[in-house]
Amino acid sequence: MTPGLTSRAAARRVCTRPHRAAVLSAAGFLVLALFAAPVGAQPAPPKPTEAETGFDGLTNGVSPQDVLDLDRATFDEVESADDGLGPTYNATSCGGCHATPQSGGSSQVAELRAGSFRDGHYTDHPGGGVVEDRALDATIQEHVLPSDNVLALRLSTSTLGNAYVEAVPDAALLAIAARQPAQVRGVAVKVPVLEADGAEAIGRFGWKCQHASLLSFAADAYLNEMGITNELLPTENTSNGQPVDLFDAVPDPEDEGEDLEAFVRFMRSTKAPPRAAELVDRPEVRQGEMLFRQIGCATCHVPDLVTAPAGTVVAGGAYTVPDALGNRVFHPYSDFLLHDVGTGDGVVQFGGVRTRNMLRTAPLWGLRTRSHLMHDGLSLTPHDAILHHDGQARSSVRAYRALSRQQRRQLLDFLASL
């Protein structure tokens, strides 16, 4: 018997008549509660706390502020040929492509991807799927070849807040796909995690969800955007399929891990993009958010995700969620799945040819800081971007067109708060 409780008989002896019914009622409630409680029941998991947000350059808690500041400097550092830059490349620093509204953010800079699709098979452009725009020597400048019948521009994506995305368990993304109606269901693709000895995980970074970890993402960009080999990708790309050894004097790997570690620490320590505080509580913005959900946009642009508890192993076993990221709710407005919304670029990376015309649902957090939208940057306003949707988003576009002028303005006011 729990200390402090008396038996029912003792209760009858010590209680006056007016209190008897109350005591019996309480005792009966206790008995019912004891029988109702499952044996060995676990306590409810703690309620998730809000992720750190802000465009203030401050740490989310993963790294101390002084470490974050040093890592940001490395992220923004301009590389030269002596550092291994090139010999073909797109940019001279990570910050050169990820800078809006601050280091790590989005960009108006687009990369060129090319390949060929024939007889049901996709092949990358010779030398790699990214056609670099710059070269250390004019004789190895890359360009589109006559055999390339798939051409695509892709904007550099924001990395701000991606630490929270990395910390979402695969099962959560699969559960989102399972809940979506069949006609708009997203595709989750398993991709190799470069640092995980062949293990795979659900991809979530890049326009084709081609990476599951920020380390893999950084290694890919260091090689394919800056031409700097590293321990995860130690082999230099060719130029249009031709060797570039004569133009590359730095032994491979050109980065032995220090820069990659700094890039990843930086990305894992950035806060998530915040809402515009001065707009969030306006009636028209709240009404616009209701309309956003009502017409189906939130089915793919999922407002809320929760990271795994601290100590959970994610990214194919390569990364353990730290305390600063564990059990955090954040608001990316994306399901991080592939969909065909009529804007596909025809490129195949993972998931086979069925994904040719699929792209990752663009996260809408930080939308108000971008001047170029969609994967190719050719939509210049949210209204244009919405009307550019088709395919699996067709019903939502029809619903948007059917809104009154005032309702449409409210929905756009909501998007302007993101």
Explain what you see.
The protein is an alpha+beta fold and 418 residues long. The chain folds into two domains: 1-42; 50-415, no CATH class. Helices cover 28% and strands 11% of the residues. The chain has eleven helices and 15 strands. It has helices spanning 8-14, 17-36, 65-76, 162-166, 170-179, 214-224, 258-269, 283-294, 382-388, 394-402, 405-415, and strands spanning 49-50, 88-89, 110-118, 121-124, 130-131, 134-135, 150-155, 190-192, 200-202, 305-306, 313-314, 319-320, 328-330, 338-339, 359-360. Strands 3, 4, 5 and 7 form a four-stranded antiparallel β-sheet that branches. β8 and β9 form a beta hairpin. α3 packs across α7 (258-269) and α6 crosses α7. The longest helix has 20 residues, at 17-36. It is globular.
Quick check: average pLDDT?
A: 91
Number of domains: 2
Largest sheet: 4 strands, antiparallel
Strand elements, count = 15
What is the number of helices? 11
Any low-confidence stretches, pLDDT <50, length ≥5?
1-37
Sketch the topology as an H/E string, one letter per element: HHEHEEEEEEHHEEHHHEEEEEEHHH
Strand content: 5-15%
How would you sum up the global shape?
globular
How would you summarize this macromolecular structure in one to three sentences?
This protein has 418 residues and is an alpha+beta fold.
Keywords:
418 residues, alpha+beta, 15 strands
Secondary structure topology:
Layout: H1 8-14, H2 17-36, E1 49-50, H3 65-76, E2 88-89, E3 110-118, E4 121-124, E5 130-131, E6 134-135, E7 150-155, H4 162-166, H5 170-179, E8 190-192, E9 200-202, H6 214-224, H7 258-269, H8 283-294, E10 305-306, E11 313-314, E12 319-320, E13 328-330, E14 338-339, E15 359-360, H9 382-388, H10 394-402, H11 405-415
Parallel strand pairs: 1-13
Antiparallel strand pairs: 2-6, 3-4, 3-5, 3-7, 8-9, 10-13, 11-12, 14-15
Helix pairs in contact: 3-7, 6-7, 8-11
